[in-house]
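Reading a protein record of the kind used here takes little practice once its layout is understood. The fold follows as a row of integers, each naming the local backbone shape at the matching residue. With these conventions in mind, the following record can be read line by line:

_____
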Amino acid sequence: MTQTIHPLDVVLHKRDGRVLTDDEIQAFIHALVHRTPQNQLVTDAQIAAFLMAVFHRGLTPQELATLTSAMRYSGETFDASPLHTFTVDKHSTGGVGDKTSLLIAPILAAAGLASPTPAGIPSICVPMISGRSLGHTGGTLDKLETIPGFNTQLTLDQIFLSLEKCGAALVGQTPRLVPADRILYALRDHTGTVESPYLITASIMSKKLAEDLNALVLDVKTGSGAFMPTYEQSKLLAELMVQTGESSGTRTIALLTNHDEPLGRFAGNWVEVWECVDIMRARRIEDRHPMSADLIQLSNILSGWMLHLAGHAPTPEAGAKLSDELLLSGAAFKAWLRIVAIQCGDVSLFHDPAAHHQPTASRTLTATHAGYLASMDCKQVGWAVQRLGAGRAKPGDPVSAHAGIEMHAKLGDPIKAGQPLVTLFTEDVSLLDEPEAMLRETLHIAATPPQLQPSIREVITRS
């Protein structure tokens, strides 16, 4: 007879530093998902205690792999096998102006469409499940939903169809996909356990692995705008996610990327879509806006790794070159239009995306003196964007489509007195003053140029 595992015993064992068995972890997650108001198999108090025990005690590699797997299979999962294609995705730990997903998905889709399988299906497919903005970081779903009609809430059958037809699907988590994460995520915010690298890993990787991926490329931010406060903590998170992905049979690579300033030209919602569309429409390098150079570079590097893992490039560097060619040729833009159309979005806006940007009020901050843009707290810049209405303080808050900022200078740039530094956009003029003060406080101009970190700090692989 199988011995019953009680949730409280699991909590006590982890609290006391014992290594949990696979059966204990699986039983706890099962109780979490299958409880009802009438049958509380595990209480909120016990879940909170479990989270705090993990926060303080951590998890062994085996515990983390088992927890991630139990969460992954706690509900429905996507089955890509009938496509007979290579499935790959990218995940970012979140940042200010981080819109690489809007470029990477069409780039990879274009590569897959250019060399279909014998059945006519793209040879690379990107089932990209994304999230919403929270705190100082932006959310891909909020950006996509500024496109009128764009449906991010696809069923698994609809995701399959989108992959089959255009090689990518940009969607949110379905109600039945990884329900254990939905429960744990909500309680982490109320229990002071959000920052646990083990819980972050289980949350991210359970959702990504539920996509049935062959490979995953992770963009783990470090720097003043990163979620993890130190380089060492960012690196630990990257290592845990790579280890967990590889143990599940998914080839996983993590890039530690510098995030000391907003990525690209804009931060917000529609303005970020606009920036990416402008990049995809450019047919010459000189047609690209100079403030988007770092965004293009990072997108090509991440796409390069994905193309390499998918067998479309002999090296990541060759993959990055191919990625840029797909952008400049217009192939990525064509793939983007197909993705938007199949998800019911209005593609007519992309003939003139600037015309769709309709904030109620704007304000431009200028430099008080000459010098070099030396530093900023990128996280504070993100909070300024949130205060303008572009982000949310808690899940469920509404967000503004047209609020945000446009950066006019990058770190290290020479600055003249009176030169524009940043323009603020909002749909509520009363929201301008606080973000302006926050930005004035954090944008520092110095007499000498700063020493800048490289954009890619380190690459973490299974070796």
